[in-house]
Automatic annotation (TrEMBL):
The keyword Calcium does not apply. Signal peptide: none annotated. GO terms for molecular function: acyltransferase activity, transferring groups other than amino-acyl groups. Residues 14-160 form the N-acetyltransferase domain. Keywords: Transferase. CDD domains: NAT_SF. Pfam families: Acetyltransf_1. InterPro entries: Acyl_CoA_acyltransferase (IPR016181), GNAT_dom (IPR000182), MSMEG_0567_GNAT (IPR024035). It comes from the Bacteria. This is GNAT family N-acetyltransferase.
Length: 209
């Protein structure tokens, strides 16, 4: 039995943050390969490109005994020209797609981080099956395009719905309960003194949406 299978064990929380440690960056690259090369078969060998050299990598980290354990979600953002930011390569591990709303939280961190860095317009090419999710998160469809043989919608985020966030390196800790989650800010770097950040379980249960 895999103790980390969400079907039998829900980890108490996820760190949502900018990748800093080598294992976080390596984990994000490995996850992208699993999703875009092995699962979706959009790319043959790897999905890396020139944007990776300038992009900020964001990750969702599962926890085990309150310590960061594994990269289970990722997205990257970059500034293409002054004020114009793009998000791309949003990926969530297949085992965690129904846990903690990780895709939504990565989108939130992506746009809010860019907004905190002077973003005036935030765009993304979104696979068609994900358009309804983005629309629920205050994104609008601007057009349609085919990328690597896959139909995408060009979408723009409503920046007013994403307050600027100045500390993506620390990010936040998202506590979960049966696939639902709530977030509490984390002012300390991931993995340090985490137990002190966890409220009593009865408070978590009362606060879960």
């Amino acid at each position: 039995m895999n103790a980390f299978d969400p079907a039998v064990f829900h980890c108490p929380g996820f760190f949502i943050k900018a990748a800093g440690a080598p294992f976080e960056k390596a984990g994000a690259a490995a996850l992208r390969r699993r999703v875009f090369v092995e699962e979706q078969k959009i790319f043959r060998d790897h999905d890396r490109d020139a944007i990776d050299e300038v992009a900020t990598c964001l990750v969702a980290l599962s926890t085990y005994a309150h310590e960061a354990d594994e990269v289970v979600g990722t997205v990257r953002i970059h500034e293409a020209e002054p004020g114009l930011w793009w998000g791309s390569r949003l990926a969530v591990d297949s085992r965690f797609r129904n846990v903690g709303r990780l895709g939504q939280q990565l989108i939130r961190l992506a746009v809010s981080t860019a907004n905190g860095r002077g973003c005036q317009r935030f765009l993304a090419h979104v696979q068609m099956q994900n358009v309804p999710l983005f629309q629920k998160l205050a994104w609008a469809v601007e057009g349609e395009v085919v990328i690597h043989g896959v139909p995408h919608a060009l979408m723009q985020a409503d920046l007013a719905s994403y307050p600027p966030f100045a500390d993506p390196e620390s990010g936040w800790l998202s506590l979960t309960r049966t696939g639902k989650g709530r977030s509490i800010p984390v002012s300390l770097p991931a993995c340090h003194e985490v137990p002190a950040l966890l409220p009593p379980l009865d408070q978590v249960h009362r606060g879960a949406a």
